[in-house]
Structures are given as C-alpha cells and as structure tokens.
Design brief:
2 domains; alpha/beta; two-stranded antiparallel sheet; globular; eight-stranded mixed beta sheet; 12% strand; 373 residues
Length: 373
C-alpha cells in the first residue's frame, strides 16, 4: 500500500466548496459531480467511496492531478502534507470524519484580481461591468452544524474559507457553534482570512480549541498589494500585523498564503522579507501556490520582467537564516516549485494579460468615487 498513490483525504475528510458543492478536496482542479446529499450522508463520506476504491486498486483519481503534477516535479504536495497530519486505515471502509474543510459563503469585502464572483460577491459587479457576465448570486453553506457536532466524535481539524470568514456573520456563527463540540480540546481550527479585520474579542472566544491557525491571504506589499486585493489598503494590513504582534494566545500559529501570479511576481522577494521580519514562526516563508490560470501565470511575462522576479526571490531567500531542518526543507520545496514554474511558457497570453489588467484598473478607477454596495 505504501507504494501506491494513497491519501488520507477520501477516508477522513469532508470538503465542501462554493455553493455547497462536495469535492474530494480544495486542491482538485476539475469539478466533481454528485447527486444531492443530506448532511448525514456527507458526514458519512459516502461521496468518497469511489475515490477510496480507486486508490486501493492503485489508481489515481482525475481530481488528484494537482498533487501528482507537483510530485512529478519533485515538489511538496498537499497529499504529502495530509499524510503527515492524519492517521488512517486505508484497508477500512469505516470512515470516521476527522477533517472538515468548508467554504461557508461568498460574503467578502474585497475584489481580488485573481478571484471570481463565486468566492466574492463584490466581484459580481466587476465581471458584469467588464465582461458582461450574468450576476452571481450570494450563497451560503447549508451544512447542518448541529449534526456535524453530534456525528463527528473523532473530528480533529476544521478549515474555514470564504468569502472572508472574519466579516461573514454566517462563518462566525458556524465557528462559535463549533465551540460546543465535545472534542473541542482536540480540534485545530484553521481560518483563511484576507486579514483586513483582526478582532481580539472574537479570538478570545476561540481559546477552547486545541490550537488556532490563521492563514493570512497576503500576496504582495505596498502598492502592488493594493492592486492585487482592491480596495484594501496596505496600511490596514500593517496595523493589523502590529495588533497581532501584541496579541497573546497560547496556541496560535500564523501563516501567509500567497498566490504566485504575473501581477505580483516582481514583488515576491519583498513579500518574503516582510514575512521574515514580521510574522515568520513555524514557516520561514509564505506558503506559495502557483495560479492555475494561464492568463495570470508568472510565465506570461516577458523574459526580462520574469527574470527580474526570479532574481528578487533568490536574493530574498539568501537573506534568510533558517533555524531548523523544517525551514531548510520549506525553502528547498519552494525552489522546486520555482523550477516547475520555469519550465512553463504562457507568453502567447501576454497581450491578453495586459488587456485584462488594464480593464480591471480602468473599471476600478470609475468605481472609486461612485456608490458602494
């Protein structure tokens, strides 16, 4: 079994994406199709049966191509991380849910350049105005949290995404109800946040969890950050970072989660230095993810501009002082991802990228002094 492409996720995880859609995990790059399911059926992981069967036979599900591609390029993958995080029995069809990964809704306060209306309702007006796309409605998860609490005695980890969970009343209610889980002292809560809001009072309510991970979605610094995550301001992030430094929590870990795109490529080196100076802990660098859109991929850039980003990144990595073997491995894994990116070429999309960026900027400028939702 150890030589097979095996992953704990089909055995122990429920992952719900946008509009309540079940999926194998958040990293899959194709859509899965399932019949309508009640909360209990989802909690029992019945929709994962085929994936368990495929992996047990030594087959690799189509939904796993993201991890497979990373591993073929000698990069670390989510699958390898999951193997470290969770214990499971691949021979068992009894599948106690240990990991809940849920996108609560698309309530968000930002219009990020690499996002879509399905994850940020505010972006709907942008896509309507620029691309004449039909409006995207607001939606929220209908998973029964009370049933989750009753039926998951072995729950170990919960990941909350949005939207923006820290401004979403639905997300905050979901998290607060989760604090009544009988296994609360053994549950790690992970919250993905754009960090435009930091609420110490809310954080105090979460101290019952075994640990808290705040995954800050910050992709760049200064003006380039503001281009990426409109209409947020860099000074807002700086202010919240200072609040976070002064906040005392016994089991809080903070990570940066950053998407590598053509828009922020030449600023990644500065982001690494910012993280090292202000936030680094268990991780020495942000967790970097390669965007899957050719239009916004770093390799859409002309050679000189692309190389400018590479040089900045390498200089930033050389300035770091790894404190342990984990840090050394994280840097090496990132370098392998850089090699994977280097081996791609999307320069045929460069003109389309420029047009897209100009349209976004032009539309934002028109909205700046206009009415806000």
């Amino acid at each position: 079994m150890k030589d097979k492409f095996i992953c704990p996720i089909p055995w122990i995880s429920l992952s719900l994406g946008a509009q309540n859609s079940p999926r194998l995990c958040c990293h899959q790059d194709i859509k899965s199709s399932y019949p309508a399911m009640e909360s209990r059926e989802l909690i029992e992981l019945k929709h994962n049966t085929s994936y368990r069967d495929q992996m047990s036979r030594g087959e690799i599900p189509e939904e796993c191509q993201h991890c497979l591609s990373l591993e073929r390029n000698n990069c670390n993958s989510p699958r390898l991380d999951y193997l470290k995080r969770f214990s499971f029995d691949p021979h068992s069809q009894i599948t106690p849910l240990k990991y809940l990964d849920i996108t609560i809704d698309n309530e968000c306060n930002l219009e990020c350049i690499m996002c879509s209306p399905i994850y940020s309702h505010k972006l709907s007006r942008v896509f309507e105005g620029i691309f004449q796309m039909p409006p995207t409605s607001k939606w929220s998860s209908n998973l029964d949290i009370e049933e989750v609490i009753r039926e998951t005695p072995e729950l170990e980890q919960v990941t909350i995404t949005g939207g923006e969970p820290l401004i979403s009343s639905k997300s905050r209610s979901f998290i607060q109800k989760l604090t009544s889980h009988p296994n609360i002292n053994n549950i790690t809560l992970r919250i993905f946040t754009n960090f435009t809001l930091f609420d110490p009072v809310f954080m105090e309510e979460l101290k019952q969890f075994k640990s808290i991970e705040l995954i800050l979605s910050i992709d760049s610094v200064k003006e380039n950050y503001e281009l990426m995550r409109f209409p947020s301001k860099w000074k807002t992030i700086i202010n919240n970072v200072e609040k976070l430094k002064n906040y005392q929590h016994p089991h809080l870990d903070v990570h940066l989660h950053s998407v590598l795109t053509a828009v922020n490529w030449t600023s990644i080196g500065d982001l690494i230095k910012f993280y090292d100076k202000n936030l680094s802990g268990y991780n020495i660098i942000p967790v970097f993810v390669e965007i899957d859109s050719p239009l916004l991929h770093p390799r859409v850039l002309p050679k000189e501009q692309y190389q400018e980003g590479v040089t900045s990144i390498i200089h930033a990595l050389e300035s770091l002082a790894p404190r342990n073997e984990i840090h050394i491995q994280q840097i090496e894994d990132f370098k392998k991802l850089l090699v994977k990116i280097e081996n791609q070429n999307y320069q045929d999309h460069y003109i389309d990228f420029q047009v897209y960026l100009k349209k976004i900027i032009s539309y934002r400028n028109k909205l700046k002094n206009g009415p806000q939702e």
